[in-house]
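Can you give me the bound-state structure? Components:
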Amino acid sequence: MKHTISVLVENKPGVLARISGLFSARGFNIDSLAVGETEDPTVSRMTIVVDAKDERVLEQIVKQLRKLIDTISVVDLTKKEFIHRELVLIKVNFNKDNKTKLISLIRKYEAELIDTKENIAIIEICSESEKVKEFLEQLKVFGIKELMRTGRVAMAI
Amino acid sequence: MKLTGARILVESLIKEGVEVMFGYPGGAVLPIFDVLYDSPIRFILTRHEQGAAHAADGYARATGKVGVCIATSGPGATNLTTGIANAYMDSVPIVAITGQVKTFLIGNDAFQEADVTGITRPITKYNYLVRDIKDLARIVREAFHIASTGRPGPVLIDLPVDIQLQETEFIWPEEINIRGYKPTYYGHPGQIKKAAKAIGEAKRPILYIGGGVIISGAHREIRELAEKLRIPVTSTLMGLGGFPGTHELFLGMLGMHGTVYANLGIQNSDLIIAVGARFDDRVTGKLEAFAPHAKIIHIDIDPASISKNVKVDIPIVGDAKNVLGQLLEEIGKVPNTEEWLNQINEWKKKNPLRYKDDGKLKPQYVVEQIYEVTKGEAIITTEVGQNQMWAAQWYKFDKPRRFISSGGLGTMGFGFPAAIGAKVGCPEKIVFDIAGDGSIQMNIQELATCVCNRINVKVAILNNGYLGMVRQWQELFYKKRYSHTCLSNPDFVKLAESYGAVGIRVTKKEEVRPAIEKAISIDNTVFIDFQIDPEENVFPMVPAGEAIDRMIGGMA
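Here's the bound-state model for the whole set.
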């Protein structure tokens, strides 16, 4: 099952390597990882989406994260009420034949057309994972040339 | 007054109470060695950095203090890594200091550069690359704090040579505040109550103790609990000495080379009280078949060790000594274990540890004689393999910090430098390294360290001309195809002599005791080359992946 774990860490060199090293050394799977400074510049927040095959693996992931000296707190958001977003940039084929269809799709999903150049459109969507997934599914027929995603960021309510 | 980084480092070590360091000089630590030249810290020059790391480890295990080792950048640092990994697996507090190339050269593939903090990240409890001289004193203070508290472990400080030469005010931080590091020392009262209740209701309880008992100094509390409630005690390799080896309630070691009665005890118990142990695969054997009827109480300072391998019913996070103290206060109902103890004694009588005394020179006999001659008072270090298991099975440890062995990592070449560290820390003790002919050659260069520094350790080489444990597996599981396990060895007597130490050769049973007595009486390092029965095996044995009551060689 997928879990969204929010980790507060010291904002200093090597911390990301400690976290990613822990996951690889212990064979835990990371689906996505997003890192950024918080309102306190000495602290970073990582949002990690993990795929844990059972409760015991999840418990180990949380405990091992807590054990790191540079970890300040670890919360499994999946066990709470939380919101989450992901930002995705997509390059798709763009021409006068598909223009109307594409724009209506963008409107429907509250995405945004960022730029168009020659036969390429760059689209941005910032939404929940499910919606993003649906949108990408719909875009496939246009021919996705390139795709870039930030990974999930999340916040408890 | 302004001091150089090198001097700040050494002053900080003195503030931390460091009396001795083990290490090896080199280009990137020259400023530090210049300060060490006339510092009050005793410096032991080893002949290989790995020896320095193991010596610091042996010193820490024997004394309970933090061991310190130092090496230069690049190869000096990478040579320390086996010793660091070893200390990490066995939760030993050491601080390793490495020189690093100049700050502005880092990342440049400079001469003798290695990404040491990167390399040691997964094998240290924490590590530091010092980037600013102003952080140095604080880093040293934190390093010792992190190494020695909670679940102890190695901490590495990588110190670029230009920072060693810069100057700043030396300000020793009295306070430490690491917001992400707050170990739990006392057990949760609710959990203590639950544990006390479970113990009161148990019919077949067993105490399973590990290295955490020794680290926390909980041996008295374990004994009180066992005696008060009449609960039998089994120990991991790391826990030996945490409960008296000669005690009637002691079952010896459990697991792969444990006693039959310890393993039967675990498998038939209805309550396991695990203290400072981590349910390692060498202990549990086949996980699904481990202790099928038992409820498990697990006391450990490291929450991540709890329910990692085996699902625990009553977890208690805290320091073993404190938690056992809490538990002793809480216990109301005392279980009636007489029937259970009778059963265990029956198993004990039927399946004692044994070996065939056929007139050949047996390694078990050698260990027994070392035990008798030293009256159980020696510090025993071991290498890894058969020698280690025979030492664990046949020497009885009544007190903690007397058995020093590489448990988690299983590092051949550990025992000899660890013996040096132990002897430096406890000069009044007899220190024996029980070694194999394979392992001893992995750090044999430390003979020079012993002789030059007059560190008298005794090395009992159980010489069978094989990498014995691997050969044993080949015999049992690979159709006796002894692939690259037969050794051609040097003359260990002459080798010892060439270093200025003493060598004794023993080929017959009747020579064993006199040789041990002679070795102890000699004021020098002594190698005793015991030429033992070459194909003697360590039994009992649980084959890898089997349940621990499926033992071969030892069940009646």
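A couple of observations. The first strand of chain A starts at residue 2 and ends at 10. DSSP finds four helices and nine strands in chain A.
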